Amino acid sequence: MALTLSTMMPLGTAAPDFTLPEPLTQKQISLSDIQGNRATLIVFICNHCPYVKHVEEGLIAFARDYLPQGLGMAAICSNDAVNFPEDSPEKIALQAKSKHYPFPYLYDETQQVAKRYNAACTPDFFLFDADLKCIFRGQFDESRPGNQIPVTGHDLRQALDAYLSGEAVSEVQHPSIGCNIKWKD
């Protein structure tokens, strides 16, 4: 595991389009399929990363809080499943089912979607407005494995709450920190 910071997509960037398989349902899911009528969150995660495991329950709670408010959401695993079999499509399906993810968990086998988003780590969060323009990219909150700070999703919640209430989203945003995406050779 190489500790990696997110690259912080420029604010205002249009969400790169995609169509990816959802291993749990065997369906092809596109950005337009998951786009929310008010906002859309794309988060790059994987099964084995301790940083993802640390925030996973908080991410599920976040989704349950905001999906009814018009948020669309998907998680994407872009890791090399050959060298990291815990992130295989079969294991992605098992994780989504066992944790009752209320959002699709997609598999980016070619890693092209991660490259288009310039995703660097897991977890890596990208929040878009109703027009699919980036309004937030960065950390879920300040909690990390072992730092004793509770997982709240404070940073992402603050950004989405401001946007949903018609306020400006602060441009002061901190990079996410996690394991690097496991790129293919």
Q: What is the averaged pLDDT score? A: 96
Structural class: alpha+beta
Number of helices: 5
Radius of gyration: 15 Å
* Stretches with pLDDT under 50, minimum 5 residues: none
Q: Approximately how much helix is present in the residues? A: 25-40%
Number of strands: 10
Q: What can you see in these coordinates?
A:
It is a single chain. The chain has 185 residues and is an alpha+beta fold. It has 5 helices and 10 strands, in the order βββαβαβαβαβββαβ. It has helices spanning 31-34, 50-66, 89-98, 112-117, 154-164; strands at 3-5, 19-22, 27-30, 39-44, 71-77, 105-107, 121-122, 124-128, 134-138, 177-180. A 5-stranded mixed β-sheet has the order 6-5-4-8-9. It has a 3-stranded antiparallel β-sheet with strand order 1-10-7, with helices on one face. The radius of gyration is 15 Å and the shape is globular.
Protein traits:
single chain, 185 residues, alpha+beta, 5-stranded mixed sheet, 3-stranded antiparallel sheet, 5 helices, globular
Topology diagram in text:
Elements: E1 3-5, E2 19-22, E3 27-30, H1 31-34, E4 39-44, H2 50-66, E5 71-77, H3 89-98, E6 105-107, H4 112-117, E7 121-122, E8 124-128, E9 134-138, H5 154-164, E10 177-180
Parallel strand pairs: 4-5, 5-6
Antiparallel strand pairs: 1-10, 2-3, 4-8, 7-10, 8-9
